Each structure stands twice: as C-alpha cells, then as structure tokens.
Give the backbone structure.
Amino acid sequence: MLETRNIDFYYGSFHALKNIAMEMEDHTVTAFIGPSGCGKSTFLRLFNRMNDLIPNTRLTGECLIDGEDIYHKSVDVTNLRKRVGMVFQKPNPFPKSIFENVAYGLRVAGISDSRFVAARVEESLKGAALWDEVKDKLKKSAFELSGGQQQRLCIARALAISPSVILMDEPASALDPISTSKIEDLIHILKKDYTIVIVTHNMQQAARVSDKTGFFMLGELVEYNDTKKIFLSPEKEETQNYITGRFG
Amino acid sequence: MKIHRGAPMYARRMKIRREKNRREKKLQGAHTWVRPYRKKNMKRILEKIVESVLTVSGATTGIVILLIVVFLFREGAGFFRHSEIETGYALCVNGGNPINRLTPEQIKAIFDYEIDNWSLAGGNDEEITPFRMNDISNYYTDEELGENYEFLPEKLSEIISKTPGLIAFVPEQYLPDESADVKVLAGGKLNPADFFGGEIWMPTATPAPQFGLLPLLLGTLWVGLCAILIALPLGLGVAIYLGELAGERVRNLLKPAIELLAGIPSVVYGFFGLVVLVPFIQKTFDLPVGETAFAGSLILAVMALPTIITVAEDAIRNTPQAMREASLGLGANHWQTIYRVVVPYSMSGISAAVVLGIGRAIGETMAVLMVTGNAAVIPHSLFEPVRTIPATIAAELGEAPHGGAHYGALFVLGCILFLITVVISVMAEVISKRQHHA
C-alpha cells in the first residue's frame, strides 16, 4: 500500500506539491490526471525517489510504502527502486540487445545464474505481451523494435526485477492508438499482480484503465476518488471543468 | 415573418459580399503579379547564390585535400626513382672483381671498415681497400694530376687496375673509362624493400645514404602508443568525473582550464618538457640522458589529454537523462549506471576522443622533437632516445636538397604518417558503428 502524509515538495523556491495526503490500495490502478505542470509527475516520481536526481529540491512530509517511510535515512535507494519499477514517457531502451535490456535489472543486482536469468527474461517478456513478437530476435538491438514494442520492452524490463509497484509516467503518450490499446490491455492484466500508478494526459485512458483517479491542479490534489465517481459525478467544480474539457 | 423577410435579405447581402470579394481578389491579383513576384524572384536568386557559394566552398575544400594527398604521394613516389649511391658519384672496382652490385648497407659497411674482405659481400677471398677521393694524395702529387685534374681519370684507372681489392668512390665527372681492368658498379634504384625493412636511418651518409624506415616508424609508434596508454585512462577518468560526479562549481572551473591546455602552443610544451621533465626523468631513473621516449610519451599524453577529456566528456553528458533514469529506476547504483549504460551509450564519442588523441600523439612534431633526443635507432626500452617520423621531417627537410633522394624519402615518411592516421580513423569508425548496432 502506498501512502503519503502532508507531502510538500519544492524545486528551489517553487512550491510544486502542496500538502498532499493520499492512499493507494494494493492491486489497484490509480490514475493521476491534471493540466501540464500540475505536479502529477513530480508526485509519481516521489515513490521511487527519482526526484533525488534533481539538484535543489526539498521534500517534507512522509511517503510510505507498506508502512515504511521510504525517505528514512536507513532506506537503501537502490533496494527501493527494485521494489518500485518505473516506465517512462518515452520508450528508453538501453543500447543493448533485447535480451540484455530485460536482464539489466537482474545483472545489476548481481544475479549471474544464466538459466535463471533466461527464464526470468522469458517470463517478463511474456508478462509484457511481447514474447511472441521478439522470441526469435532476442539478440537483436532493442532499437530495431517499433515504438510500441520498445515501450512494452521497458515494461518487461521493469517486471523482470519483480517489483510490487509499477509507476507509469504517461506510458502511451508517444505511441500510436494500436500500441496504446496494447499497453492499456497490459495494464489490466498486470493489475492482478502489481500495484500500478499511472500519470496520463488522456482522460479516456484514465477512465478506461484505472480504479481510482486523482485530479491535480497547481500542486494540489483537488479530488481523489473512484474513477467512476470522478468522471460521472465529480464533487469539485474544477474537476468537472477539467474533465469536460472546459480548460486545461 | 422574420424568416421570410430575412432569407432574401441574407441572400442579397451574400451577393454583395461575393462581388466585393471578387473585386478585392482582382485587385490583389494584380498586385501579386507586379511587385511581390519580383521580390520572390530576388529571394530565389539570392538563395541560388548562397547555395552555389556553399557548393563551391565544399568542392574547393575537397579539391584542396585531394591535391595535398596527390602531391604528397607523387613526391614520395619520386624517392624510388633515385639511385642508391649518392647522386653525382659512382663506385668503381677492379675488372677482375666478380661483384656487380652492392646493397646500400654493404656499401656503408665497406666504407665504415666494418667489412674488410670481399668474400663477406659475396665476392672472392680478397681484402677490401676502400678508396675515397682524398686518398688520392697517398698515390699521386697534385702536379701529376694536372692543373685542372685533367689526368685524374687516367690515374684513377691506374690505381684501380693495380689493386685487385680496391673499391673507389669517385665523382662522375672524373669517372675513368670502363675497360677490362676497371668496372663501374651499377647503382640500383632505391627499392621499397630496403626502405621499409631497413634498420638504419642515415640519409646523409656517403657514399650510400641509408634510408631505413624501421627506427623512425617504431619510434613513432612506441612514443604514440605509450602516450595513449598514459592519456587514455587518465582522460577517460577525468571525463567521467567531470561528466558524472563533479559538482557544478568544480566543473565550471576545471573544464575551461582543461580547454585552455589545448590552446598552449606545442613549443611551449616542448620547452617545459626540456627544462622540467627531462632533468627530472634523468635524475629519477638515473639515466645517462633524460631525453627519452618516456619524456616524449609524457609530454604527448599531457598534450592529448585536453582533446580526449573535452570530446569524451561532451559525449558522456550527451547521454540522455532518460537512460540514466531507466538504469537507476531498475535498481542500479551510480557506478553501475556509468559503466553499463553511460559509457556504452557514449562509446562513439569516446572512440572519437581516442582517435583525436592518437592523431595528436602520432602527428605531434615540435614538443617531441625537443624532448626525445632524436637518435634514429630502433628503441628497445622506454628510456632510450628515439626519433619520430614527424620530428624527422621537421628536422631534416630544411637540409635535404630539393628533389634529391633525401627530400623524396621525407615525403615517403609523410605518406606513411598519413596512412597511419587514415587506418586509425577507419578503425575508430568501425568500432563506433559496431557499438551502435549492439
């Protein structure tokens, strides 16, 4: 279970997230929507501490995964990131073979048993619904795949280290409709085993894939509720305006 | 009612508007025919001019490069048309001597008294008596030779026929007539096998200059290789430090400083090497001289560093942030990210850095000339004086007579230098291509 309490986040002097409290259940899909620059990606990246890479940032409040504060001094960031996988907006495979891309997380974790690695790679590629398309060309460069395939490869790569949470930062925004629908189908399947948090600009997508939806605006969590409720009878006027396309 | 009255009104209004539009269009049409068209034409001509200027400058550059290469190789090829024996001179032996041809190395050995019997050069068992023009006073007085040396050829003929083991090195102008007793040795053309396999470089030796490439080639490769072995790990280390680890302030300080290093003239590096490095090496390693291959390698390494660092660091910093995030997001730590993702990703840039560094090391002239001691001998260790190809060209071109064998030999050296660099760039190209496909 993911949980935040009183999260405030600053880029330098810019107050990017304002007092956000939220809970996300295991094995659910939570979507974050909101206009550009509203802080939803920043919020997402808190959960695997990706924001640590950006200089001059500051965080207050608590961010918990299964009750453990992931910003506590005793937490090993690399271990945390093995538990919390991430898929990025643009497909970003490594300049390596398809096989090595998926095996990367295992390799850096120091696993050298080649039979285990091979089995895990196959399992992950199957999990990302990519196995049938690439099983004959695992040694080929990942750059030879199409954009949609590359994105599913990135999902497979994240699955390989068996995380419990998968963060997706606009995973389909750079893809064509067919690839997008494949990714969405995949999210439905993955939900059984993983807790998924997805940031999207596409409200239909949020409505299609998520169980719960959070609407962000200007660094604040305006409304967080069941997806059905958000899209059919939102409580706040801003939410209503945004999902009906009156602004944003 | 409203609709009834409004509809024809609307139709009338539309008609008026259409007519107005047509008039305006006509006007506009007339307008576009005269001035904007000319303007457009002018713009097109200007674009054509710019285009042709660019094409011409591109073509000129290509032609100039081609001309330089052609010139280099033409002059270099001229070398092999020269005779093995110094121009204007000839070698004569006794008519009874079975020897018809001597290699440059044999000639040198004979006149340096290293060979003293014809059997060692493939002839009869007979003692060799080398004879140079200044030895003539041992045989004849000046009066006997005549006022203008008009009797010289005759007397030479006499000396040669009298001494069976004699070999004389004489100017062509006083060459005795060939007869049963006197044989003029045909000087062969300089041949590539002797040049590329030769182990002695003494281009001013008489009677036969020695053009052996090996000491120079090995000297160049030796110094260049050691320089790269020093500069590459250091340069890559600094590049990775600057690109990945250094804080913004350190970077802003260090990077311009390193770039400044690239701007220092090589003479200054050479001077520094001569004054500081050479004595230091001599003392530290307790050597007879400090001017060694090692000094050259160190200086070259320092000179190649800025290039390697700047190019490699740019490549490393150009690695997309997304790559780093992907790696870190999979639980890799900073180091794993650097050597598994960042370095492979920037491999083509890094190999470019290596090539530029090697190119600089191989081609660098002045600094190396000043600190390596310039002894054209095949190097056996790092702590011996060596001489590189560029240093040889720089040092000797001024003294080589234009169009002579020595002059040609220096151009052949230039060609070899050129070929070495071509091979290195092709290699780098292949390496970086392969990395990209992986």
Notes: The radius of gyration of chain A is 18 Å. The first strand of chain A starts at residue 2 and ends at 11. The interface with chain B takes residues 48, 50, 53, 55, 78-79, 81-82, 85-86, 88, 90, 92-97, 104-105, 107-109, 141, 154, 157-158, 161 of chain A (CB under 8 Å). The beta strands of chain A are 2-11, 14-24, 29-33, 57-65, 68-69, 84-87, 165-169, 195-199, 212-217, 220-226.
